[in-house]
Amino acid sequence: MGKNCFRAINSTLIYIERGEEYLMLHRTKKENDLNHDKWIGVGGKFEEGEAPEDCALRETLEETGLTLTSWRCRGIVTFISDIYETEYMHLFTADGWTGTPRECDEGELAWIKKSELLKLKLWEGDKIFLRLLDTDEPFFSLKLKYEGDTLVLAQLNGKRLEVGR
């Protein structure tokens, strides 16, 4: 592989639904965490040989203690950054599981009302895909480009969206 070889991260993000709430993770515990102090769903990077579903199930179990029994892949989110590697995030929602949430070593887990989500400290792009989940948008591709922590470009299914500056 030459130095011009393109590499990208594949990851999953899962929003576990309980009625009108999502199980959210307030990222407070890891050193050098690009998501530090932000609220996100659970998830993480693929391991060798994993399909998106494999990663979603493993990460949910590792971070929450829950075993998913009903889930849906909702879209692909492409993150482009002037600081971090390109990332392809496979976005899931889940509405069935077994087990009881346990303490997470990456932050605090909390059930948050969907109507309260946008009041939390979130990435700007996360607000876009949370709205898409809320409106039950068909499977989508969302491209988000960041300069530092600032969202500078958002495209939904190839069409540009307005982003606040």
Structure description:
This protein has 165 residues and is mainly beta. It has a single domain, classed as Nucleoside Triphosphate Pyrophosphohydrolase, CATH 3.90.79. Helix content is 15%, strand content 45%. It contains two helices and ten strands, in the order ββββαβββαβββ. It has helices spanning 52-64, 124-134; strands spanning 9-18, 21-27, 39-40, 42-45, 67-81, 87-98, 107-113, 140-147, 150-156, 159-161. Strands 1, 2, 3, 4, 5, 6, 7, 8, 9 and 10 form a ten-stranded mixed sheet that branches. β5 and β6 form a beta hairpin. It starts with 8 loop residues before the first strand and ends with a strand.
Keywords:
2 helices; mainly beta; Nucleoside Triphosphate Pyrophosphohydrolase; 165 residues; ten-stranded mixed beta sheet
Radius of gyration: 15 Å
Helix content: 10-25%
Please give the domain count.
Answer: 1
Number of strands: 10
Q: Report the biggest beta sheet as strand number plus sense, adding barrel if it closes.
A: 10 strands, mixed
Distance between the termini: 39 Å
Structure summary:
This protein has two helices and ten strands. By secondary structure, the chain is mainly beta.
Topology, pairings included?
Layout: E1 9-18, E2 21-27, E3 39-40, E4 42-45, H1 52-64, E5 67-81, E6 87-98, E7 107-113, H2 124-134, E8 140-147, E9 150-156, E10 159-161
Parallel strand pairs: 1-6, 5-8
Antiparallel strand pairs: 1-2, 1-4, 2-3, 2-7, 5-6, 8-9, 9-10
